[in-house]
């Protein structure tokens, strides 16, 4: 019964995306149904096929092992303070290491090579242009303002549909550098990696419904910019370190402010017998039910997803982690995936500002697309969770 409700949920969520479309008649049915089929096949492969499950399990172990190398640097700097449960040190500190490593791998062309191969395949399967396909794939590894850098010189000439793809894939994914933060909160790495794997097809599926292609693409012969302004691998590492530090400070400041504000709101609303999180739970409860979760789990899903959209995904994961013990394995998997994107109101300004740096002449177009792009980015991982939930 739960899986039948999940199928209904997929239909309803796609219906919501359809209602948000700015040109329903122009929707390319081949692209949409191919992307839909690809998501189902990929979810089936990763969950039910032994080889797919093995790949995910081994990848999770490898990534966890990679995280552990950060312990050396953290122990050297913080000594006995490391490993004592201090959130800023144990969780956020690792992000700096991964950000530096991502910078190095990008400079050396490793990220670009993977993006080019997978992106080329995705583009051929769906019939989408190279630049937008590359960005959708790049968001498996990079953040919403980092991935577009690979095709920055093409952004000013992109069609509105291609720009929507850039925005949806950016706000419909999370950065690989920050996965460690979620994992150290207690979110299973297996489900985080599956979330990442489902980004390209999921983003293109939603984006091509929201803003179908009606223009002739001006972007061709795409070459990826892997070095940026860096002149050496050490320069790239330094940039990665600085980016990681800014990310850590931003997350820390956000958590301090938001958790405090939520506590204040809970105290105020407590005077009328409710709380901010409970109110969010009721508002987003229908999504939890459409995911095929039972009554109490649907309520928790509503609270978590409401927190994610109104605040950010990090706070939502921080709220989810201590609740996982009272949830079924299916609910843990689906919520771990559903929260996995930057699709929140706060991301709109970040996305528009970041992309406008590369394409200042398209700021008005970006601003007009931003709200629907954010909603698309919010829906992408929820659909991914529903696809996975069909096989659990």
TrEMBL record:
<dbReference type="InterPro" id="IPR011642">
    <property type="entry name" value="Gate_dom"/>
</dbReference>
<feature type="domain" description="Concentrative nucleoside transporter C-terminal">
    <location>
        <begin position="193"/>
        <end position="389"/>
    </location>
</feature>
<dbReference type="GO" id="GO:0015293">
    <property type="term" value="F:symporter activity"/>
</dbReference>
<dbReference type="Pfam" id="PF01773">
    <property type="entry name" value="Nucleos_tra2_N"/>
</dbReference>
<protein>
    <submittedName>
        <fullName>Concentrative nucleoside transporter, CNT family</fullName>
    </submittedName>
</protein>
<feature type="transmembrane region" description="Helical">
    <location>
        <begin position="191"/>
        <end position="210"/>
    </location>
</feature>
<keyword id="KW-0812">Transmembrane</keyword>
<dbReference type="InterPro" id="IPR002668">
    <property type="entry name" value="CNT_N_dom"/>
</dbReference>
<feature type="transmembrane region" description="Helical">
    <location>
        <begin position="370"/>
        <end position="391"/>
    </location>
</feature>
<keyword id="KW-1003">Cell membrane</keyword>
<feature type="transmembrane region" description="Helical">
    <location>
        <begin position="247"/>
        <end position="273"/>
    </location>
</feature>
<feature type="domain" description="Nucleoside transporter/FeoB GTPase Gate">
    <location>
        <begin position="89"/>
        <end position="182"/>
    </location>
</feature>
<comment type="similarity">
    <text>Belongs to the concentrative nucleoside transporter (CNT) (TC 2.A.41) family.</text>
</comment>
<dbReference type="InterPro" id="IPR008276">
    <property type="entry name" value="C_nuclsd_transpt"/>
</dbReference>
<feature type="domain" description="Concentrative nucleoside transporter N-terminal">
    <location>
        <begin position="8"/>
        <end position="81"/>
    </location>
</feature>
<keyword id="KW-0472">Membrane</keyword>
<feature type="transmembrane region" description="Helical">
    <location>
        <begin position="279"/>
        <end position="300"/>
    </location>
</feature>
<dbReference type="Pfam" id="PF07670">
    <property type="entry name" value="Gate"/>
</dbReference>
<dbReference type="InterPro" id="IPR011657">
    <property type="entry name" value="CNT_C_dom"/>
</dbReference>
<feature type="transmembrane region" description="Helical">
    <location>
        <begin position="33"/>
        <end position="56"/>
    </location>
</feature>
<feature type="transmembrane region" description="Helical">
    <location>
        <begin position="163"/>
        <end position="185"/>
    </location>
</feature>
<dbReference type="Pfam" id="PF07662">
    <property type="entry name" value="Nucleos_tra2_C"/>
</dbReference>
<feature type="transmembrane region" description="Helical">
    <location>
        <begin position="332"/>
        <end position="358"/>
    </location>
</feature>
<feature type="transmembrane region" description="Helical">
    <location>
        <begin position="6"/>
        <end position="21"/>
    </location>
</feature>
<dbReference type="GO" id="GO:0005337">
    <property type="term" value="F:nucleoside transmembrane transporter activity"/>
</dbReference>
<dbReference type="GO" id="GO:0005886">
    <property type="term" value="C:plasma membrane"/>
</dbReference>
<feature type="transmembrane region" description="Helical">
    <location>
        <begin position="86"/>
        <end position="115"/>
    </location>
</feature>
<keyword id="KW-1133">Transmembrane helix</keyword>
């Amino acid at each position: 019964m739960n899986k039948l409700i999940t199928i209904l949920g997929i239909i309803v969520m796609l219906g919501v995306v359809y209602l948000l479309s700015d040109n329903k008649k122009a929707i390319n049915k081949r692209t949409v149904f191919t992307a839909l089929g690809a998501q189902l096949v990929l979810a089936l492969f990763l969950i039910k096929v032994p080889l797919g499950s093995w790949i995910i399990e081994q990848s999770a172990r490898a990534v966890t092992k990679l995280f552990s190398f950060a312990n050396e640097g953290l122990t050297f700097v913080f000594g006995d303070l490391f490993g004592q449960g201090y959130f800023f040190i144990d969780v956020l500190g690792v992000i700096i290491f991964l950000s530096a490593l991502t910078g190095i791998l990008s400079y050396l062309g490793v990220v670009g090579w993977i993006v080019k191969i997978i992106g080329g395949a995705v583009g051929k399967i769906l019939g989408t242009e190279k630049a937008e396909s590359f960005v959708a794939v790049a968001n498996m590894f990079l953040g919403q303002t980092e991935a577009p850098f690979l095709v920055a010189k093409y952004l000013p000439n992109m069609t509105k549909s291609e720009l929507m793809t850039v925005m949806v894939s950016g706000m419909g994914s999370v950065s690989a550098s920050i996965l460690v933060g979620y994992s150290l909160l207690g979110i299973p790495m297996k489900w985080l990696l599956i979330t990442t794997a489902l980004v390209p097809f999921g983003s293109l599926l939603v984006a091509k419904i929201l803003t179908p292609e009606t223009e002739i693409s001006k972007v061709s012969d795409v070459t990826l910019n892997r070095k940026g302004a860096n002149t050496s691998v050490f320069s790239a590492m330094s940039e990665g370190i600085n980016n990681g530090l800014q990310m850590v400070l931003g997350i820390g400041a956000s958590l301090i402010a938001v958790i405090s504000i939520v506590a204040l709101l809970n105290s105020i609303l407590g005077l009328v017998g409710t709380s901010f999180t409970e109110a969010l739970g009721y508002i987003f409860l229908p999504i939890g039910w459409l995911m095929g979760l039972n009554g109490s789990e649907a309520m928790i899903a509503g609270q978590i997803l409401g927190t994610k959209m109104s605040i950010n995904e990090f706070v939502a994961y921080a709220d989810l982690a201590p609740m996982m013990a009272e949830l079924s394995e299916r609910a843990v998997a689906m919520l771990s995936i559903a929260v996995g994107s930057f699709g929140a109101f706060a991301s709109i300004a970040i996305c528009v500002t970041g992309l406008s740096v590369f394409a200042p002449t398209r700021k008005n177009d970006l601003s007009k697309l931003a709200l629907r792009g954010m909603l698309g980015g919010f829906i992408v991982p929820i659909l991914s969770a529903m696809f996975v939930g069909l096989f659990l």
